[in-house]
Amino acid sequence: MANSNLPRRIIKETQRLLSEPAPGISASPSEDNMRYFNVMILGPTQSPYEGGVFKLELFLPEEYPMAAPKVRFLTKIYHPNIDKLGRICLDILKDKWSPALQIRTVLLSIQALLSAPNPDDPLSDNIAKHWKTNEAEAVETAKEWTRLYASGA
Amino acid sequence: MGQSTSRRRDDHPQIRPSHQPHPLSSSSYSPPPPPPPPPPPPPNYIYPPYPPPCYPTRPSHPIPSPPQQFYTTGSYRYFARPTYPYPPIPPPANGRWVPPSSSSSSYLPPPPPPPPPLPHVEHEKAKTIKNYVNVHKDTIRLEEDESDKDQHLVSFTFDALVDGSITIHYFAKEEADCNFSGEYPDIMPVRVSFQKGVAQKFRQPSGTGIDLGFFPIDDLSKPSDGYAFPLVISAQASSQSLSVDEQQSQPDSAVRVQITLAVIEKKNGEPYRVKVIKQILWVEGERYELQELFGRSESEPEDDNSGQECVICMGEPRNTAVLPCRHVCMCSECAKALIAQSNKCPICRQPVEKLMEIKDKSGSL
């Protein structure tokens, strides 16, 4: 089984995530693969994603924590740094990864990214362009998508 | 290729920057711990060149061990390399450290830059040096002399494993062999003997203080010309109280002194405050500078959630300092694993030049 040699760090992180979850974030490991987490992030208040429940998947590769977790949005989201496949443009998931970071800090960073879209470093060119040319309209679209796809229903 | 070590970094594609850093990174999305200020720049002491420092070996200490004054324990500091006159600037990434176990620990000059510079990270064990007298630098105060309110007396807490003496110098500057001489001949240093004991309170005898109001604040709040410190506390272990063995082993260099260099600050209406700039240890003819380590808290007991575990495995205690940034965040195994694929400190991402494993007698930091 893939779970038999689970590093102690992953076990500890999992226990702490379950016993002391961060506000607005839940992460629980899959039953058949303890390196695969089902994640839910609530849209931050005063963001276009407020009221939304966003599902993500998080996978800890074999090299973790020397390599970053792989994280992807499963819920459709209108955000300049997230593309239509749910991939996230976030430096700490790439070259700025540090093994001192954890699942919890990664998810908090993603939650913060929802509060602060950054169209100057886009992953999704169209959305970023929309954001820069007409931010109010882009925010409306993001709210609309939140209602449509992230209502938690 | 006959590489002599396996510590050279393998190229790992995933640690190469893959795209432009996220512009938000430094503001909102970086990991929380802020990097500490870099170590202070080397001061401009100029001394004639000393012979290359070496790490002397000592016979074991027969003295019983109340609070072991290894600097790697008590206040979580480590000794910088013996400094002559001051810590050499760490060599560039392609420079080599000579391990202290060899007969000479002087630096080799950095080799000519090799075509592909491979970071080379030494992993060495910290040598512990016993300090017989330790002045707690955060406890140093200036108090008014009851018999003359204009005079200020120095007080502090200190630990002493042997008898010795404290000498207070004013406006003193360092000379060869860690001797200090005052700039003003009419202000005499004050010397007070003490007996061994832990957590002793020192208070300068009434009538021996100086009137700080006589000096402009500017003269008190910084070393004059970068040399003379307004307050120098020299805590010396008496060589007579060392065992016969130890005396014989160090005929010429029996002096062991901890020196605390401080400036004096005063804000409007507030009392004088002492600010320690650095501490030096003079042992067996070697000059060491004390530097703090980051990432260990003194107060919290060791337990699973105290944050004293290695940030990588979250299992073993932290016992390895990353140099030059001085973050203590890893156990030695994880530190070795880290530098096999990255040369960045996990906390501040500064390049790692050296790892130093720190252990006290019990095996943990």
Automatic annotation (TrEMBL), chain A:
Pfam families: UQ_con. Keywords: ATP-binding, Nucleotide-binding, Transferase, Ubl conjugation pathway. GO terms for molecular function: ATP binding; ubiquitin conjugating enzyme activity. Residues 5-151 form the UBC core domain. The active site is at residue 89. PROSITE patterns: UBC_1, UBC_2. InterPro entries: UBC, UBQ-conjugating_AS, UBQ-conjugating_enzyme/RWD. It comes from the Eukaryota. CDD domains: UBCc_UBE2N. Its EC number is 2.3.2.23. Catalyzes the synthesis of non-canonical poly-ubiquitin chains that are linked through 'Lys-63'. This type of poly-ubiquitination does not lead to protein degradation by the proteasome. Mediates transcriptional activation of target genes. Required for postreplication repair of UV-damaged DNA and for adapting root developmental programs to suboptimal availability of iron. Interacts with yeast and human Mms2, with the RING domain of RGLG2 and with UEV1A, UEV1B, UEV1C and UEV1D. Belongs to the ubiquitin-conjugating enzyme family. This is E2 ubiquitin-conjugating enzyme. It comes from Trapa natans (Water chestnut).
Automatic annotation (TrEMBL), chain B:
One of its GO terms (biological process) is protein ubiquitination. Residues 17-29 have a biased composition (Low complexity). Residues 310-349 form the RING-type domain. SMART domains: RING. PROSITE patterns: ZF_RING_2 (PS50089). It catalyses: S-ubiquitinyl-[E2 ubiquitin-conjugating enzyme]-L-cysteine + [acceptor protein]-L-lysine = [E2 ubiquitin-conjugating enzyme]-L-cysteine + N(6)-ubiquitinyl-[acceptor protein]-L-lysine. Pathway: Protein modification; protein ubiquitination. InterPro entries: LOG2-like_mRING_C3HC5, MGRN1/RNF157-like, MGRN1/RNF157-like_N, Znf_RING, Znf_RING/FYVE/PHD. Residues 1-51, 97-122 are annotated as: Disordered. Keywords: Lipoprotein, Metal-binding, Myristate, Transferase, Ubl conjugation pathway, Zinc, Zinc-finger. SUPFAM superfamilies: RING/U-box (SSF57850). Belongs to the RING-type zinc finger family. LOG2 subfamily. This is RING-type E3 ubiquitin transferase. It comes from Acorus gramineus (Dwarf sweet flag). The lineage of its organism: Eukaryota, Viridiplantae, Streptophyta, Embryophyta, Tracheophyta.
